[in-house]
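Figure 2 data, in text form.
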Amino acid sequence: MRIDTITAQLIKSSLYYASEEMGIALRNSSYSPNIKERMDHSAALFDSEGRLLAQAEHIPVHLGSLPWGLNNIVQYCDRNAIELEEGSMIVANNPYIAGTHLNDVTVVKPIHFQGKLIGYAANKAHHADVGGKVPGSISIDARSLYEEGLIVNPTYLMRKGKLLNETISFFVSNSRTPIERTGDLKAQVAANVTGSRRVLEVVKKYGLRAFQEAAADSFESSKRVIVSKLSRLKRGSFSAVDYLEGPKGENIKLKVRITVKSRSMEFDYSGTDRELSNPLNTVFGVTLSGVHYVLRTLMGDDIPANYGTFSSLKVSIPEGTLLNPTFPHPVAAGNTETSQRNADLLYRAFAKALPSKVPAAAGGSMNNVMFGGGHNKSTWAYYETIGVGLGGKQGQDGIDGIQANMTNTMNTPIEDIERTLPIRITKYELRKDSSGAGEFRGGSGIVREFEMTGDSPVTFTIVSERFLNSPWGLKGGLPGAKTRAFVIRRGSRSSDKSVRRIELPGKATVVLNPGDKFEINTAGGGGYGRPSKRNLSQIANDFKNGLLSKQYVADCYQIHV
């Protein structure tokens, strides 16, 4: 007897909420601010064939890379006689296997019921430091993956229900922050235990056959929904080009052609520049995440994140290019910055197929900032991404000061930073005059300023975008403001009260001395529609709230306030 619709829906919903609960367990038991406060992690459940059952609404850049990585890990274990036995867990961070970059550590738990493999619980979390050239492990000049940090191919983290101390020791001894790494790894274990427990509860309640039939029903239902939505799209091929900003200020080309058919969609990245000798490359799984993310945002939130939704998509990326590099090309910054440019590229192409759905460009960067050094006879490392403005869209202004597109993290609370690190936050506000003008303006960027309060020099790295190319507007909207960053240095002697404000490029590593400051002004979102059509009361309100200056209003909206 076939499973009934209500039971199938109950099982599907239970699995979705189980994946969300995995994320809660990971967040609540982690040690590092990057996971506990910023929630830089994702969690998912899979069937025994590695097909995605449910993925929590966590980090978009993990949306395609986590399923891609899970299947690569399972295949690697099969080739290398690593048995996915009951009570075991596997850990890996090699981007060419697990997806994303070395900071993102994937932990997989096979789920068994009555001695039979029935699925997998898996999660991915960004560890703030895994070794490498700079604190935070995302450098601007690594020439191979070996320079970016510790590389872990799939190996046992747990066997027969017990953690392997030798694996943990090997992992954490290669980090500048070993205590955090130990706690975060154990938190990832807790997340998978939670997910596995919830799956087994569902199976025991409804039966294994009902669980498997519900999965198949969910896949078919999702495929029907996506095919139905595709049938309403404009047929044809739609191309776009966008540019990534290289460390030397050069433009690096990304190109895509999207072909919309009646029951499927193809994404062809031919024409994208070749792989690079710097960390801006991004592995196939990350590029795939961009496709999945943009499609879900445009097709509607009734499309679940599971195998069926994405089975109608074909993604072709020539090997050896920026978006599908070959081992061991470095990839640390590609996961954060190139992924953002890929999202903008896809939106630009979709603007021709769905002109009323696509927003203007967001600030277009995760704005990675990394600090680290010595303090109180120990080493420390800190990683954070800074929000931007979202692009305006038909009928709605862009959101101010928010993480955009491929990232979905929170900020790190000032209290947590100042309590635990030799850093003081001296400025945190929305950036005036950064929004792209339009009938529906772009969101405002952020100003965030860090002061070094320790007793030792700090190695600081910024990896950011939109320093050269502004976030574009649509339908006559103006571009958002570009990103800017500064180091503010005080005099070297106590009697010297002079201050120097030094502008940085978008990708740089510098040494900050005690008392020095770093300030970032992130990009605003592009405007949507002609500025002349904006409601005057909205302009006045933005001016009153300090988001716009008189000069900006006069220049961009041609009125005086």
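Caption note: The chain has two domains: 5-220, 359-561.
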